[in-house]
Design brief:
This protein has about 325 residues and is an alpha+beta fold. About 55% of the residues lie in helices and about 10% in strands. It is built from 14 helices and 7 strands. The strands form 2 sheets. A 5-stranded antiparallel beta sheet has the order 4-3-2-1-5. Strands 6-7 form a two-stranded parallel ribbon. The protein is elongated, with a radius of gyration of 31 Å. About 10% of the residues are buried.
């Protein structure tokens, strides 16, 4: 990333250097050859946009009826094609037999768009739902490896691929890992924690830990008091109901008040336990921030360059050695 280099070119160079030696081949969606190979599909999307939208809507209705949320919302009249317009990369909409650019509002005919694409091969580009179709048209694909988000929106695409005359590739979930640094492993081992236990909100983790650390005598005394209140009120209700049935409700109210006061006492006991174990809770919270930043697995938030900067290129060697992916499935012989 140096002056005169675009963000895309910088990213391309970094990935090439880091993953190229491991067999990753890179291309550029803006490459003239790639653009030339995909132009026919993009123009077909424009010409038959209404029919393709109907295909996507039918699939969307099936997914929603089955209880799934759409990963990519569908907009009435919006095409899955973008054109470089006066306001930059603008989405095209169907309008009165022609097309309209979303931001600038300019109206265009199909001939206008063809002329722009002829003058500038980079002018047209696919939207998020059309891009996998274009990729498979340019590079015939047997299997597509992707993450959870991509997996979700690929569910919208099978019929869309078929409508374009292309068989959708097999979707293979990418390998998912949790990197546990030595300092975090020490915390997990110290408190006997499993990684998945830290996926909960921290206040739940802290409360559970405080309950575990509560002195046995205090826990036993609170339990006995609860039992005594429940038993005592039940006896009172039985006796007073023979005198006046309405007093049973009053006794129940006394029970509720007593339990509420007892809950408040237990809350303050837990707070005292948390204060006593503040250092331990701080260590667990730090471990959680490493493993589940923002409440999601670290791989969804952290850049691998954190680890590459900290541990150098050998980090990738260690990962590669640790990975074992059986394409035939876990039950194969």
């Amino acid at each position: 990333y140096t002056p005169g280099v675009t963000l895309a070119d910088g990213f391309h160079a970094v990935l090439g250097e880091v993953l190229g030696p491991r067999g990753l081949l890179l291309t550029d969606a803006a490459d003239p050859v790639v653009k030339a190979e995909s132009l026919g599909l993009l123009l077909d999307e424009l010409e038959r946009g209404e029919a393709y939208e109907a295909v996507l809507r039918e699939t969307a209705a099936e997914l929603e009826a089955a209880g799934f949320e759409l990963q990519v919302p569908l907009i009435e009249g919006a095409l899955n094609v973008f054109l470089e317009g006066p306001a930059g990369r603008e989405r095209l909409y169907r309008e009165d037999g022609g097309y309209r650019l979303r931001t600038s509002g300019d109206g265009l005919s199909l001939e206008d768009i063809r002329a722009r694409a002829d003058a500038d091969p980079l002018a047209l580009s696919p939207g998020v739902l059309l891009r996998p179709v274009v990729e498979s048209a340019v590079f015939p694909t047997l299997a597509y490896v992707g993450g959870p988000g991509e997996c979700a929106y690929f569910a919208q695409l099978r019929a869309y691929f078929r409508a374009h005359g292309i068989r959708m590739p097999v979707f293979y979930p990418r390998h998912s890992v949790t990197v546990v640094e030595a300092k975090i492993r020490k915390v997990l081992d110290k408190f006997g924690l499993r990684i998945e236990e830290l996926s909960r909100p921290f206040h739940e983790i802290a409360a559970a830990r405080a309950r575990e650390e509560m002195p046995e005598g205090v826990r036993k005394a609170l339990g006995e008091l609860r039992g005594a209140i429940a038993s005592g009120v039940a006896k009172v209700q039985k006796e007073v109901s023979t005198l006046d049935p309405t007093l049973k409700g009053t006794a129940q109210h006394v029970r509720s008040q007593a339990f509420a006061a007892l809950d408040e006492l237990e809350r303050k006991v837990l707070q005292a336990v948390k204060r006593e174990h503040e250092i331990a809770l701080s260590q667990m919270e730090k471990a959680q921030l490493h493993l589940f930043p923002r409440g999601v697995p670290a791989e969804r938030v952290q850049s691998p360059f954190y680890f590459l900067t900290r541990y150098g290129g050998t980090f990738l060697d260690r990962l590669e050695e640790a990975f074992e992916v059986n394409l035939a499935g876990p039950d194969s012989v």
